[in-house]
């Protein structure tokens, strides 16, 4: 059984570290480190550059290549465990972070601003100097033969849409270890600490509003979200607060990286040199129409004091599991996974008012992931439509469900579907050629995001042209896991991997989900999370189990095939999608037990589950 | 030597970057000067292997950012050059080493290069003389291989010598040089040109300048060289620092055009005090310095000079944004853009949305932080100095707009309308352009060699191969795919002199059970077809499909907005869920599908818009699942009038076949467990298929061979006769004239698939087979198993048919019983009574009986005389 490497990483790092530290000590003794990676990363860059030059390399040979600057960084960050000391760049830390220090930024590539040519190295007098990983330089104007022009990619990154703040809180705590935070930051940390690391983030702002209550009481309130004091209004307000507070985009400049490595909507951690507002502001009077016509001036569109620049030294792709609290290492035994599964299923069942069938499906839905694309078909997606909601049950179970999901998954979004929303919202990202930017849309989501759509609020009404277009986009997303980006002169399909949960009164025809499960709650339970360790375990479970490989033995395969044929013979209305769905459910059930091969038992469970569901549909 | 001591001297002339770009394009005289100044500078500076940045600096950067000592000489020369448009062209310097210096050479230039013999342009391997000689040879002696072959020996002049003459005759101002020609003639020169475009182009211009007076001494304009059609075209994504200052060729789509920027070239000032006009003041580093003192000796007033706008000389400039075409964008990327700088004649040659191929020089300009600050961001802005712009489908666009209706063949897109009667607002055109874009997006021609396509077409299994390549993920349904293939290729539209026209578009209806991948087929065709609109029946209204008149809320003007069918003119309009479409909307299709026009008469607009579209519709049977007990008509549940307009109606039935089910199950399981990409088959990729179809549609216009025509007639007669077997009603006709048209179209399409100009017998036979396959499915009378077009054309239900048949047999029995061969005749009313006696619960009308009897009569069973029947 192979689980993602993060699980095992701990001990490995330890063993490597001992060896590495010794090597490092030797190196330090020999060369000495005239720079500090955190405070003066450019010093490190410079020293490696000088070293490379002095060893006789021609700067021309560094075109599009690294001269060895990355290696010390890699060593520092990963071998010496320096990564956790690197402060995270976000809205709050941006206020106190020093320019030209090493920071890291976790975000989604929202737009690509093309390539940028810059003077990479130039000769100052008789010595070569480099301006790599820097914004501006004192290099001589104009061209000279003693100058190398290099290229870098400019990416516009934003915090991952729908990122829940429990993912950050631990990070922030980590970063505090190293950074000499200002009082402001400390305050924030205090607050976060007070609230507890993994509380329902959504309530944090509302806590601030009701500071009258004691900490303990607050905690109780947080932990019983089904209690009536959480109205939808409060939640919506708090999310608004959240976005305003946390939103810090960042322009990331990438050096010497293959284009295919970084894709739109990928989530990355960029570690590099931050420059905040060092760029000289452009004089308004000198707005040169001509030169600005040639290319948009970034500093006009993205004022440097609002959007920091990060000159990326090292970047790494992040999966959903990277947003968990890594301190929590679980032994991935099948037994343990089963335990977690049972507990989580229980939790979901309570959240769904004791509807065990719906909880089963919800669990599978939360584990689903597109794992292959064949032509236009996305294999592995499992969108779920819970029907039978009305206004009242929505306010209870809908919110409860929403909070539950929010607490379990790092990226969650929620769309209250109304006619007005459809007619006004910009769901698809759209290219604005005036500013040459991709204007984000609601559906520009990172891989592995969860999207809950509340259809109960949809009333009779007329859709405008935009509304029809939006409905079509949603339908496409449901069916193909693709979002059409509007490039004005043409549209471009972008593949996504979003888990879609629809809550509706009857079966949703606007949003045809893979699974329609009538929701039948029988009791009102409390989803209070008493055990933080359990919550951690659930998050770990959801993000890791879905990455399990899956296979089938030929014997089972035959059984499955026979069953499919029999099902098809019995009901001619079954299409290939229905059959495909059965297999997806099978895979997910199998994975939910932490197993990698479909067993007969699991297959029986699939059939049983489907039977129960069909009974309800009748 | 001043120029040598100050390497920046040349900055003074073409000072601003904007000015300097124009050198190869806008103002060629200057460019020649440029070349020299550059050259002289190069000689002066230290040689290095990096040639690019210095030039960069000279032309763009330093001029803006580095104040340099003004070179009075070059400035003066700049002024003179500018005046050149009006005066005798001062043919700028030729190298001093060459002996054919034209007399008009300015002495200043001579100074520039007199000191040592300039054999090589600095930093390059360009020897001016060599290059010049090579260019002269090329222009004089290059001959098109084909042209020289066809025109024989007496044709002695080179291709470009001819072209130059023509340009002179037309008073043109540019000479288009095909880089392919250059490459074929002198590969070395081509390489040099690509590598050092500024230098070589400058020499090109000098050569031209020398040649022109030899041909026509009175010709005053200057001719610029515009290079196009480079051998290799760079992808926008791959432009990198090493491409700076090289000639590149890019393909892309224009997304934005700036307004035209008038760029001042020369200014004339007037003194407010004395009214003295200055000499033209040339541009310096992108700025014109206003004289502070009146130059008139008597006046010498301070700060009195004012710009006289209408005596200044301006040049047009435009910044255009070019974006990658969608097919070049890798997965998970956003399109790249690049700026183009257009000058003079090139301004406004492209509009947003045009697909163009641009040849130009890739340039970079450093970003200045402020006007007064010396600090420069270490960044460069890059752009392409445009030399030549070619609309990738210019011919097509032109054809689109001007093509006359009399043109045969459904291969050039056009949208024609009755111009006398209608005024169609711009909006329609905008939409129309949008349609063209849609087309380009979906069916972008990859520049596949025609040869390759032809090669492909010669393969014996091309028909099967194309069928396989069509929606390869949908199996079975081979005959449906073949029909769809025919639809893609289309038949020949024909317009007779009498005005009657026959459509070439093939309409197909797919009726089938749910889950038989009809929609996928539709989507696929939509993706593939040159111009397609995909609509869903439920979401389409009549006006949405055809066209509607709307009022502009601001101006109150009535405008015509075209709907899906008009928009997919010359394409395929895919309509999903045809059965769920409203009656009203469907009825709009009648005109479209046979007459291929959309007529509008409302709000003072009477228009007939072309909608030469193939319709591909798919529908579910009326009961959502095909009911074998009902007739096809009842199952399809569409008005027969509409049905008859479909050339092929496929019934895609999901038969309860274990074999197929098992295959499906296997496929789905493998989808989930195996690597689905592992199963590769021998089929053409989408691009090849698209270009194949496009090429065939454009270039192949098959005609019926005699043999094929004969076969067609024979087959048709046969088809008709088949319905006339004894026992069937007289009303049963197997084929209608509409069917023969369909057959012709199908055969033509089949010939097209083979790239054949002639429809052969095989094509006709295949088209019969296709029709039969489709018809057998869609028009099988389930009681008799015969092909029954009556079902589709008149909509007789199965029960009605059954009733008729029982009546027929009952009548026959009675006649057999009651009447003797050659015996006395019987009245119809008597027969009716007899029938009623036999089947008391069956209601029989006299009319029905009359029909039945006449059927019997046609069989030769009875004879009718008035109301009397006689058995014979």
TrEMBL record, chain A:
Q: Which GO terms describe its molecular function?
A: chromatin binding
One GO biological process term: DNA-templated DNA replication
Q: What is this protein called?
A: Mini-chromosome maintenance complex-binding protein
Q: Where is this region: Disordered?
A: 167-189, 207-227
Q: What is the annotated localization of this protein? A: Nucleus
Q: Where is the composition biased (Polar residues)?
A: 167-182
The protein's UniProt keywords, in alphabetical order, are: Nucleus
Record GO cellular component, one term: nucleus
Question: Which Pfam families does the entry mention?
Answer: MCM_bind
UniProtKB/TrEMBL annotation, chain B:
Q: Where is this region: Disordered?
A: 1-120
Q: Where is the composition biased (Polar residues)?
A: 59-68
Task: Keyword check for Hydrolase, yes or no.
Answer: yes
Tell me, in one coarse class, where this protein mainly resides: nucleus
Instruction: Name the residue ranges with Low complexity bias.
Output: 14-34
Q: What class of enzyme is it?
A: hydrolase
Specify the superkingdom.
Eukaryota
| Cellular localization per UniProt | Nucleus
Specify the MCM C-terminal AAA(+) ATPase domain's residue ranges: 462-668
Q: Which residues form a coiled coil?
A: none
Per UniProt, the keywords (alphabetical) are: ATP-binding, DNA replication, DNA-binding, Helicase, Hydrolase, Nucleotide-binding, Nucleus
Please give one Gene Ontology molecular function term for this protein: ATP binding
Q: Does the keyword DNA-binding apply?
A: yes
**Enzyme nomenclature, EC number:** 3.6.4.12
Q: Which reactions is this enzyme annotated as catalysing?
A: ATP + H2O = ADP + phosphate + H(+)
Quick one: a GO biological-process term for this protein?
Answer: mitotic DNA replication initiation
Gene Ontology cellular component annotations, sorted alphabetically: MCM complex; THO complex
Quaternary structure annotation from Swiss-Prot or TrEMBL: Component of the minichromosome maintenance (MCM) complex, a heterotetramer composed of MCM2, MCM3, MCM4, MCM5, MCM6 and MCM7. Interacts with ETG1.
Member of which family? Belongs to the MCM family.
Query: What is this protein's function per UniProt?
Result: Probable component of the MCM2-7 complex (MCM complex) that may function as a DNA helicase and which is essential to undergo a single round of replication initiation and elongation per cell cycle in eukaryotic cells.
Q: What is this protein called?
A: DNA replication licensing factor MCM4
Organism the protein comes from: Cucumis melo (Muskmelon)
């Amino acid at each position: 059984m192979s689980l993602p490497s993060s699980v095992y990483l701990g001990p490995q790092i330890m063993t490597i570290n001992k060896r590495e530290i010794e090597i490092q000590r030797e190196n330090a003794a020999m060369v000495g480190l005239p720079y500090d990676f955190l405070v003066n990363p450019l010093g490190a860059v410079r020293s490696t550059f000088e070293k490379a030059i002095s060893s006789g390399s021609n700067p021309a040979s560094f075109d599009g290549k690294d001269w060895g600057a990355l290696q010390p960084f890699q060593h520092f960050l990963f071998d010496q465990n320096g990564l956790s000391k690197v402060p995270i760049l976000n809205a709050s830390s941006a206020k106190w972070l020093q320019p030209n220090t090493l920071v890291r930024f976790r975000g989604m590539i929202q737009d690509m601003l093309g390539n940028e040519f810059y003077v990479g190295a130039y000769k100052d007098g008789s010595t070569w100097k480099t301006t790599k990983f820097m914004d501006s330089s004192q290099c001589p104007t104009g061209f000279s033969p003693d100058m190398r022009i290099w290229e870098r990619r400019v990416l516009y990154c934003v915090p991952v849409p729908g990122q829940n703040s429990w993912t950050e809180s631990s990070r922030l705590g980590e970063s505090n270890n190293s950074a000499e935070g200002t009082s402001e930051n400390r305050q924030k940390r205090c607050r976060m600490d007070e609230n507890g690391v993994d509380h329902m983030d959504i309530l944090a702002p509302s806590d601030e509003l009701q500071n009258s209550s004691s900490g303990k009481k607050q905690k109780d309130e947080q932990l019983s979200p089904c209690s009536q004091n959480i109205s939808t209004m409060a939640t919506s307000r708090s999310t608004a607060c959240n976005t305003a507070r946390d939103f810090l985009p960042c322009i990331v400049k990438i050096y010497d990286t293959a284009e295919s490595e970084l894709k739109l909507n990928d989530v990355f951690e960029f570690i590099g040199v931050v420059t905040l507002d060092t760029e000289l502001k452009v004089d308004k009077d000198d707005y040169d129409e001509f030169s600005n016509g040639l290319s948009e001036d970034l500093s006009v569109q993205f004022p440097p004091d609002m959007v920091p620049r990060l000159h990326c030294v090292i970047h790494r792709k992040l999966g959903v599991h990277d947003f968990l609290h890594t301190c929590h290492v679980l032994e991935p035994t099948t037994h343990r996974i089963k335990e977690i599964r049972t507990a989580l299923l229980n939790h979901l069942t309570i959240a769904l008012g004791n509807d065990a069938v719906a909880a089963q499906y919800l669990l599978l839905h939360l584990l689903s992931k597109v794992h292959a694309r064949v032509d236009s078909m996305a294999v592995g997606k499992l969108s779920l439509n819970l029907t039978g909601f009305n206004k009242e049950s929505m306010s209870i179970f809908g919110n409860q469900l929403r909070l539950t999901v929010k607490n379990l998954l790092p990226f969650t979004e929620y769309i209250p579907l109304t006619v007005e929303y459809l007619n006004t919202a910009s769901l698809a990202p759209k290219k604005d050629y005036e500013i040459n930017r991709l204007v984000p849309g609601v559906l520009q989501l990172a891989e592995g995001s969860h999207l809950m759509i509340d259809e109960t609020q949809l009333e009779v009404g007329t859709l405008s042209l935009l509304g029809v277009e939006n409905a079509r986009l949603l339908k496409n997303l449901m069916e193909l896991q693709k979002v059409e980006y509007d490039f004005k002169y043409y549209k471009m399909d972008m593949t996504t991997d979003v888990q879609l949960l629809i809550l509706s009164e009857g079966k949703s025809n606007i949003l045809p989900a893979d699974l329609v499960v009538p929701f039948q709650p029988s009791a009102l339970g409390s989803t209070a999370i008493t055990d933080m360790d359990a919550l951690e375990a659930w998050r770990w479970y959801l993000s890791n189990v879905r990455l399990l490989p899956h296979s089938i033995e030929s014997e089972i395969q035959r059984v499955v095939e026979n069953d499919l044929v029999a099902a098809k013979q019995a009901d001619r209305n079954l299409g290939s999608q229905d059959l495909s769905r059965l297999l997806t459910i099978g895979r997910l059930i199998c994975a939910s037990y932490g197993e990698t091969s479909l067993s007969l038992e699991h297959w029986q469970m699939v059939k049983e589950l489907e039977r129960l569901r069909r009974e309800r549909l009748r | 030597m001043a120029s040598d001591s100050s390497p920046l001297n040349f900055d003074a002339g073409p000072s601003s970057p904007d000015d300097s770009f124009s050198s190869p394009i806008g103002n060629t005289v200057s460019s020649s000067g440029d070349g020299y100044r550059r050259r002289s500078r190069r000689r002066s500076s230290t040689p290095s292997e990096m040639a690019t940045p210095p030039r960069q600096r000279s032309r763009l950067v330093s001029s803006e950012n580095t104040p340099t000592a003004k070179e009075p000489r070059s400035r003066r020369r700049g002024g003179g050059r500018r005046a050149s448009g009006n005066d005798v062209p001062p043919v700028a310097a030729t190298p001093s080493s060459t002996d054919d210096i034209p007399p008009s050479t300015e002495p200043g230039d001579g100074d520039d290069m007199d000191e040592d013999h300039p054999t090589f342009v600095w930093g390059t391997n360009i020897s001016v003389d060599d290059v010049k000689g090579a260019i002269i040879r090329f222009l004089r002696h290059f001959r098109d291989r084909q042209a020289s072959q066809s025109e024989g020996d007496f044709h002695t002049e080179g291709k470009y010598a001819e072209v130059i003459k023509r340009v002179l005759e037309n008073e043109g101002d540019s000479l288009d040089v095909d880089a392919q020609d250059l490459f074929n003639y002198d590969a070395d020169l081509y390489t040099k040109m690509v590598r050092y475009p500024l230098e070589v182009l400058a020499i090109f211009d000098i050569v031209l300048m020398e040649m022109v007076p030899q041909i026509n001494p009175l010709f005053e304009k200057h001719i610029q060289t515009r290079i196009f059609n480079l051998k290799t075209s760079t992808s926008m994504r791959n432009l990198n620092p090493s491409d700076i200052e090289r000639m590149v060729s890019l393909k892309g789509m224009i997304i934005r055009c700036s307004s035209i920027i008038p760029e001042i070239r020369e200014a004339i000032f007037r003194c407010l005090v004395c009214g003295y006009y200055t000499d033209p003041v040339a541009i310096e580093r992108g700025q014109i310095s206003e004289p502070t003192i009146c130059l008139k000796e008597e006046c010498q007033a301070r700060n009195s000079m004012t710009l006289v706008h209408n005596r200044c000389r301006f040049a047009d400039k435009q910044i255009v944004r070019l974006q990658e075409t969608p097919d070049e964008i890798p997965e998970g990327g956003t399109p790249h853009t690049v700026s183009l700088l257009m000058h003079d004649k090139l301004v406004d040659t492209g509009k947003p949305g045009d697909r163009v191929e641009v040849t130009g020089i890739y340039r970079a300009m450093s970003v200045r932080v402020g006007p007064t600050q010396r600090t420069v961001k270490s960044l460069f802005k890059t752009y392409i100095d445009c030399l030549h712009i070619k609309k990738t489908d210019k011919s097509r666009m032109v054809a689109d707009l001007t093509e006359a209706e009399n043109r045969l063949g459904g291969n050039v897109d056009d949208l024609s309308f009755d111009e006398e009667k209608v005024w169609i607002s711009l909006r329609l055109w905008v939409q129309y352009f949008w349609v063209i874009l849609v087309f380009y997006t979906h069916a972008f021609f990859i520049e596949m060699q025609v040869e390759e396509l032809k090669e492909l077409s010669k393969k014996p299994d091309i028909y099967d191969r194309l069928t396989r390549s069509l929606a390869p993920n949908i199996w079975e349904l081979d005959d449906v795919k073949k029909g769809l293939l025919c639809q893609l290729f289309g038949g020949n539209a024909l317009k007779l002199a009498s005005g009657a026209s026959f459509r070439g578009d093939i309409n197909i209806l797919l009726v089938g059970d749910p889950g038989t991948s009809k929609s996928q087929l539709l989507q696929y065709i939509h993706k593939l077809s040159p111009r397609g609109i995909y609509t869903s029946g439920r979401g389409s209204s009549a006006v949405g499909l055809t066209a509607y008149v709307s009022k502009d809320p601001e101006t109150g003007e009535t405008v015509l907005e075209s709907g899906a069918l008009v928009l997919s003119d010359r394409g395929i309009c895919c309509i999903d869920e045809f059965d769920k479409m409203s009656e009203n909307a469907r009825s709009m299709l009648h005109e479209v599908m046979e007459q291929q026009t959309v007529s509008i008469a409302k709000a003072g607009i009477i228009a007939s818009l072309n909608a030469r579209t193939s319709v591909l519709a798919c529908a579910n049977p009326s009961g959502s699942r095909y009911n074998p007990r009902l007739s096809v008509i009842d199952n399809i549940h569409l008005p027969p009038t509409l049905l008859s307009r479909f050339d092929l109606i496929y019934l895609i039935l999901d038969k309860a076949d274990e074999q197929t089910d098992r295959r499906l199950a296997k496929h789905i399981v493998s989808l989930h467990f195996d690597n689905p990409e592992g199963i590769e088959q021998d089929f053409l990729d989408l691009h090849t298929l698209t270009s194949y179809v496009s090429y065939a549609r454009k270039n192949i216009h098959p005609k019926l061979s005699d043999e094929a025509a004969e076969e067609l007639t024979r087959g048709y007669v046969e088809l008709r006769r088949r319905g006339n077997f004894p026992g069937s009603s007289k009303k049963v006709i197997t084929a209608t004239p509409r069917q023969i048209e369909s057959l012709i179209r199908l055969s033509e399409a089949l010939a097209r698939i083979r790239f054949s100009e002639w429809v052969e017998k095989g094509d006709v036979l295949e088209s019969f087979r296709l029709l039969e396959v489709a018809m057998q499915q869609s028009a099988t009378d389930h009681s008799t198993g015969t092909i029954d077009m009556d079902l589709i054309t008149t909509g007789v239900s199965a029960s009605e048919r059954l009733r008729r048949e029982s009546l027929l047999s009952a009548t026959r029995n009675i006649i057999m019983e009651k009447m003797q061969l050659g015996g006395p005749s019987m009245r119809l009313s008597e027969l009716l009574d007899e029938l009623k006696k036999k089947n008391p619960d069956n209601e029989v009308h006299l009319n029905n009986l009359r029909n039945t009897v006449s059927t019997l009569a046609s069989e030769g069973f009875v004879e009718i005389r008035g109301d009397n029947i006689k058995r014979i």
